[in-house]
Design a protein that fits this description.
mainly alpha, hpI Integrase, Chain A, DNA polymerase, domain 1, three-stranded antiparallel sheet
Length: 295
């Protein structure tokens, strides 16, 4: 069982090119599934069948797991079983028979344009180099809508200053080009001229954004930067992904077509991008209910 999980993790990492976070989550789900299979009398992965899979999900449901969690675990079980069948560990693929509950997608919390601008421009009391970096971080997050991991992974040569675009390496090592505007350009220029040289150290390498010790900026630090700016602007707690949601919604509200927004965000499916249409419509409804006398 342990060897099967290790081989599965290697497959996800090297063949499927999944992120380290996804590999850890899917491997943990595989361990949970196989542990449950052993309790049901299975001696090896070949004993997995649809009854074991359904029993495993039913047990997880009794712990109060959310529908989204159940859906993800079912997806992990399907991937594991499909891999195990191809690898010769399972005589059949029971995961193909496994239905999973559809995760209810709540509409993301989105800042209004004026609130997003206030957050990005929030004054800070950090030392000058750090303040310049934080402003560049906030401007880039909102201007491009990139993920926090994508932001932290940017190198100096990923920025095309002439065309005002950044080259982003997204999920599955898929590369895309994302434009940014003049405010982000000014913030980035000030950071590169005056901030980055002050923080540069032996571990800086080619990283675009640096931490206070000179190494590549970490996602945890970016989350603190965004949360601090939200507090300074008297806004509710906001995470980097909140700026991504806001950027996408404001693009849709401004008339951008969904295909373009999908490409900018790096979504594999248009279905992931369509939620921002629902967000825009819901905001319109809320404004109507508030303003119309006969709403």
């Amino acid at each position: 069982m342990r060897e099967a999980v290790d081989e599965f993790a290697r497959y996800l990492s090297t063949v499927r090119n999944r992120s380290a976070h996804t590999v850890r989550a899917y491997a943990a789900d595989a361990v949970s599934l196989l542990d449950h299979a052993v309790r049901m009398g299975c001696a090896d992965p070949g004993g997995l069948d649809i009854t074991v899979l359904r029993s495993w999900l039913a047990r997880i449901r009794t712990t109060g797991a959310a529908r989204a969690s159940l859906a993800r675990r079912a997806a992990a079980a399907r991937v594991f079983c499909a891999w195990g069948h191809r690898a010769g560990l399972l005589p059949t693929d029971p995961g193909a028979q496994l239905a999973s509950p559809k995760a209810r997608r709540d509409l993301p919390t989105v800042l209004r344009a004026e609130h997003a601008a206030a957050l990005v421009e929030a004054p800070g009391d950090e030392p000058a180099p750090v303040a310049l970096r934080d402003r560049a971080v906030l401007e880039l997050l909102y201007a491009t809508g990139i993920r926090v991991s994508e932001l932290c992974g940017l190198d100096l040569d990923d920025v095309d200053h002439g065309r005002r675009v950044v080259r982003v390496l997204g999920k599955g090592s898929k590369e895309r080009t994302v434009p940014y505007g003049q405010p982000a350009e000014r913030a980035l220029d000030r950071w590169l001229r005056y901030g980055r040289p002050a923080l540069f150290g032996p571990d800086s390498g080619t990283a675009l954004l640096l931490g206070v010790r000179g190494g590549r900026l970490h996602a945890t630090a970016v989350r603190r930067i965004v949360a601090r700016a939200a507090r300074a602007s008297a806004l509710p707690h906001t995470a980097p992904h909140g700026l991504r949601h806001s950027a996408a919604t404001h693009l849709v509200e401004g008339g951008a077509d969904l295909r373009s927004v999908q490409e900018l965000l790096g979504h594999a499916s248009l279905a992931s991008t369509q939620i921002y249409t629902h967000v825009s419509v819901e905001r319109l409804r809320a404004a109507y209910r508030q303003a119309h006398p006969r709403a």
